[in-house]
Amino acid sequence: MTTPEIAKMIDHSILHPTFTDDDLAEHCAIALKYNTATVCVKPYHTQMAAKILESSHVKICSVIGFPHGNSTISIKMDECKQVLDDGADEVDMVINIAKALQQDWDYIRQETQSINDLCVSRGALLKVIFETDYLNDDRDKITLCKICSDHKVAFVKTSTGYGFVKNLSGTYSYTGATNHDLILMRKNCAAPVQIKAAGGIRTLDDILRVKELGVTRVGATATIEIMEEAKKRFS
After folding, report:
1. Which of 89, 92, 140, 181 is labelled catalytic?
2. Tens-place pLDDT, residues 26-80
3. Any idea which fold 3-234 has?
4. Of 61, 71, 83, 190, which is least packed with CB atoms within 10 Å of its CB?
5. 70-93 pLDDT, tens per residue?
6. Using an 8 Å Cβ cutoff, are 24 and 50 in contact?
7. Its pTM surpasses 0.85
8. Is 146 a catalytic residue?
9. Residue 92 catalytic?
10. Cβ neighbourhood burial of 106 (10 Å; 0-12, 13-18, 19+)
11. Which residues contact 169 (CB under 8 A, 6 or more apart)?
12. 22 an active-site residue?
């Protein structure tokens, strides 16, 4: 691979709840320096990011229903319309996780179709976030892959990066993208549906590992470290 090819696999994540407007500007500069695929931003930062990056090749990805997926379909639709109006080229949507856990697949189909149809009508790409840490049953993940394939979404995505599971001790843990889930998603999605790995992608070797599993996009905050290593290794 080349260094530019690595960069174009990265959605540079600017999603931490504490990130301010100044943080957004700083991280957009990082994405611009390395020419990443996108910056992935909070909804209210979409318009600002689009203005900062308007003359560049870095696209704008905004999140909706983030991070817990619990908004109604109509609210997700309104949120999607807003971020598209504000300049988003791509939208990462968290599914209604509870509906998936209770196997209310009609609801998940309606949600997925509604948001994807809106994105397609506006020339935008949809990534559907499963939040795999919450889904213990591979059968549910396979069903989600089938639904996303049926509706021809652009990407399926493992995680938000914020799907913290509460343990019996009261502590929280998080795994994110695993080889098991990435292999399962690639195997059970139609060929045109791309795979985005998010959660735990922190090094160049992580990217190269998941690429071998069929991943074409990753969510990352460690873009500087990844790209500086890529420059050393591939230049």
Report:
1. 92
2. 999 999 999 999 999 999 999 999 999 999 999 999 999 999 999 999 999 999 9
3. TIM Barrel (3.20.20)
4. 190
5. 999 999 999 999 999 999 999 999
6. no
7. yes
8. no
9. yes
10. exposed
11. none
12. no
